[in-house]
Amino acid sequence: MSDFEINDESDRKTIKFLDNPVVYSLTEMFGITAKNSNYKVLLLSSGLPIHNDLEKFADFENFCDSGKSPEDKIGQSTLISGMLKGNNSKTINGFCNKCELFFAKVIDNKSNVNISSVIAGILWGIIQGVNIIVIPFTIDKYDDTLNDTIKKATDDEIVIISLYGKSKSPHGSYDNMIKFKYSEGKLIDEWSLKQNSNMISILSPKNYEPFSMCGSSRFMRVSDNEAAAAFGTALTLYGVERCNSKGIEVNNKNITNFICED
Fold it and tell me: In 10 A of CB 249, how many CB atoms?
């Protein structure tokens, strides 16, 4: 039984070859430039990605499927990682090849995820000294311990990002995260960002399709939720970098201001 809903994968589409190389660049999309060097990103997802074009990872821990293969069996971790650290100029070139990417497997091979695994992953990220923790699914089920763990991370100036979701709990949702949503802008020709408090909506130009890597050598049109996680990570890295360059506190308000106002 899963505590959280792993988001819809119906808009995925597998292909063998890419017609053209895919380059993910904040400069080309939003007119902003990030170095992203030496920043540590932890992805709480479906396991260890394996693909020929993926940059090496920093570290890994398995918080579910004890005794089973730590590899990504459902694809989410691999797809997001490819958009971030794909390193082949002829196929996928990711947003942030210079950042260090950590993996914590919290989604099991049946697409279930438990609160305890997410808590363990966040605590491991604190120990590893990461800058950003990415939760690529909606966190809608409220839990006091999880909320306290998120606060512990943000008190250490670790930024946690997740996806949009409507709270199913009368106790509310988690306010210490930046939440992203991605969709195609049906009638627009340029990239657009819309902010509502700590929530950011990313709109692509019409007919845009985000692709990434899957399996050992194939490619796939990623789901909108996976795109939101990858785009959100790259934008958040930019916001963290800007906070540090300005010598101001790394917090959600400052980061979202930099993302949406620069």
Answer: 10
Four-CA torsion 145, 123, 51, 69, nearest 10 degrees: -80
Burial 176-192 (b: 16+ CB within 10 A, else e): bbbbbbbebbeeeeebe
Confirm if 75 and 202 have CB atoms less than 8 A apart.
Answer: no
For the chain, which residues make up each domain, given as ranges?
A: 18-261
- The matching CATH number, chosen from 3.40.50.200, 3.40.50.2300, 3.10.20.600, 1.10.10.10, for 18-261 is 3.40.50.200
For the segment 165-194, the average pLDDT, to the nearest whole number, is 79
**Which residues contact residue 94 at a Cβ distance below 8 angstroms, ignoring those fewer than 6 apart?**
24, 55, 81, 82, 83, 84, 85, 86, 87
Q: Which residue has the tokens 């989604």?
A: 107
- Residue 6 is predicted with a pLDDT of 75
**Which amino acid would we find at residue 11?**
D
Residue 34 vs residues 44, 67, 92, 132, 243: alpha-carbon distances, Å: 23, 39, 18, 15, 12
Name the DSSP letter for residue 134. Answer: E
The mean per-residue pLDDT over the stretch 145-160 comes to 95
Question: Taking the complete model, does pTM exceed 0.90, yes or no?
Answer: yes
CB 74 within 8 A of CB 84: no
Give the pLDDT band (50/70/90) at residue 172. Answer: low
